[in-house]
Structure of Crotonyl-CoA reductase:
Amino acid sequence: MSKQLYELGDRPPLGEVPEKMHAWLIRADRFGKPTEAFQKEVVNTPAIADDEVLVHVMAAGINYNNVWAGLGFPVNVIAARNKGGEPEDFHIGGSDASGIVYAIGKDVTNVKVGDEVVMHCGQWNRNCEWVQNGGDPMYSPSFKIWGYETNYGSFAQFTKVQGHQCMPKPKHMNWEEAAAYTLVAATAWRMLHGWGANSIKKGDVALIWGGAGGLGSMAIQIAKAVGATSVAMVSGEDKFDYCMKLGAKGCINRNDFDHWGMLPHWKDNAGYAKWLKGVRGFGAKIWEVLGEKRAPNIVFEHPGETTIPSSIFVCETGGMVVVCAGTSGYNATVDLRYLWMRQKRLQGSHFANAVQCNEMNELALRGLIDPCMSRAFTYEELPLAHQLMHDNKHPHGNMSVLIGATEFGLGTSGKPPVAIVHPTLPKGDVHTTPHPYPMSTPLPDIAEGEAITIADDGSKVSDLMHRGIISCTPDDVLGTVAKIMVDKEIHAVVVMDGQGKAIGVVSQTDMVLARQGRSPQEARSMRAGDIMTPGCATCDAEMLLSDAVSLMTGRRMHRLVVTENDRPVGVISMTDVVRKIIGE
Ligand code: NAP
């Protein structure tokens, strides 16, 4: 007689699905650090739909997504699913796994009971009109990351996946190695191979950011497999050997340069010249590593805000910068001249569709992808593995946890097709990416954006503004404008036309930029109208202070001219807001 529940490691006879299963659960009442959020429980084994497969999980991969799921931030994944009609008040995470097929729905044709599989983490509704019409499921509104945006991930004896998620497990890998690579390798595959004419090809040069990281280590191997040359970016020379053994031609230590970050304003000649010097030095370093003056045809991006300006600059004419994350920030600045004049492409990319996952997995089956597994944990240690990640103390490389496998190193059933030399992962646990945001982020849309409630005490601009406008005319010379600023101890002067209309602002920054490349005499004799920032940003005195602040932050401004009945009557500045915050 079949048992209702099997203990871990006591694998049910093939095809027998017990009513209950062991799992690590996250519940809303214990959202918090991983060691508290994850608790062992016994739950019902999920039923499967016609297009689904039930897999007995042998090992699961660890990703940052489920640190966020446990924190309940930035998305409460349980509440989000309940809102969508799913009844379960818990979350079973896990977006990477290896295991054995135990049951299949009637429409599943690609696997059968007993198959050893690895699973990719892309799910979509097969009835979605876009998908049914042959569209890339990655663009379907129904697309979800299994084990983060969906329940019944791989941190349980059984997981529920869609048939297409199952792919053959490489026979030469053990269970924990096989559970480690799919998410990162498939993401890297789409980034490099998914973008038409710009996809990577033999002879190309690829610049790979975070070469020793999860995505980067896969990107180096994928580039090598196609016959491309890669240059790996890392933050220390201790990672050079690792990236070279994976297949990089050479490495660059990003700490040898200091021009990273947002672009200086294009009007800031001196700042821009300094940036240009830095980025050209970086480009020359790429040439040095390559041994020839070639620019990368493809730049593999995920740090985002700090690196995009350089990535766009060094990318070959007609080449592509492909980005799947903004680990250092989301406001990437682009000098559009380089984008349009040299006809480069800045391409977003997110995970991969089933075809691409299988193309990637072919490489793994052929022994051309090392899973770069750094450490495997026991079932009991699952919260610890996430806690290390939460505390940024996890080892470099990809981590796995045993679920059904009773010991480390089990599950290999064949020799690697090619001789693999496992590269030694860089020692140490110093991470430069503090807490990457979850790979999937719900974004407000034109149609479905929910109003965000902001904490606001109802203050109005009129409560804080300074009445009276200190102004000049467009014909005033800068010497005069500067004297007004100094005498009145203000940072900007409003430029008014003959009809009393505010037509621009001359700020201290405008004055300083006007001096660049000119003698003091030349600068002093320029006119306010020549250097002002035109189109004076205004707000009504009755506007909510919070709205005025948004206007300023959005435009990166420090002050707004305040109007009443469309007439300028005063100024509100960030300094006024700061004074309010500290209660002055
Ligand atoms: P990872 O293993 O932590 O590696 C990221 C690497 O980026 C680090 O090792 C670090 O290498 C480098 N880095 C960090 N900060 C940097 C900076 N300011 N400038 C330049 N390089 C920097 O993470 P991962 O698994 O590769 O994932 C990277 C990002 O992609 C994460 O944000 C992740 O959430 C996202 N992701 C997105 C998808 C998707 O489908 N959209 C899928 C997977 C991952 P060095 O310190 O050696 O330079």
